[in-house]
Design a protein that fits this description.
This protein has 149 residues and is an alpha+beta fold. Helices cover 29% and strands 26% of the residues. Strands 1-2-3 form a three-stranded antiparallel sheet, with no helix packed on it. It has a three-stranded mixed sheet with strand order 4-5-6, with helices on one face.
Length: 149
């Protein structure tokens, strides 16, 4: 496999130590199926808004991002010596839409940190948004809102 450096990728940070590599095999696109190399993921796919029996890439992205974001909030809270509430939650909403003749995503992370002072909760979510790999992936690429609910 050949790697090509383009002006868009020349400033990208190269990972120094790979901690994990997810491997999937997908066939059939949005109406297909996807399986992970370790067998833990074996799902049917369906286009959003159809009556198909499967999930869609937007739901998978929302689930992955919200799970990762909770981990990033945990790291932020630990550095601040704050215990996160056991019933914290992130409701991720990923929109698929069109603009300028193409398809695009936008997202909202609705974060619930019950029992924390609003300014403390805001510091945690802002720090998490700077450190979460999914947030870094989307930064400057799509519209993202981080809401405390």
């Amino acid at each position: 496999m050949e790697t090509v450096q383009t002006p868009e990728t020349s400033n990208i940070i190269k990972i120094e130590k790979v901690l994990y590599t997810a491997k999937t095999h997908t066939t059939g696109g949005r109406e297909g199926e996807s399986k992970s190399s370790d067998g833990r993921l074996d799902i049917k796919l369906s286009s959003p808004g159809t009556t198909g029996a499967g999930t869609n890439p937007e739901q998978l992205f929302a689930a992955g991002w919200s799970a990762c974001y909770i981990g990033a909030m945990g790291l932020a809270a630990a550095k601040m010596k704050i215990t996160l509430p056991a019933d914290l939650a992130v409701d991720a909403e990923v929109d698929l839409g069109t603009a300028a003749g193409g398809y695009f995503l936008q997202a909202r992370l609705n974060v619930s940190l019950p029992g924390l002072a609003p300014e403390v909760a805001r510091e945690i979510v802002d720090t998490a948004h700077q450190t979460c790999p999914y947030s870094k992936l989307t930064k400057g690429n799509i519209n993202v809102e981080i809401n405390l609910v």
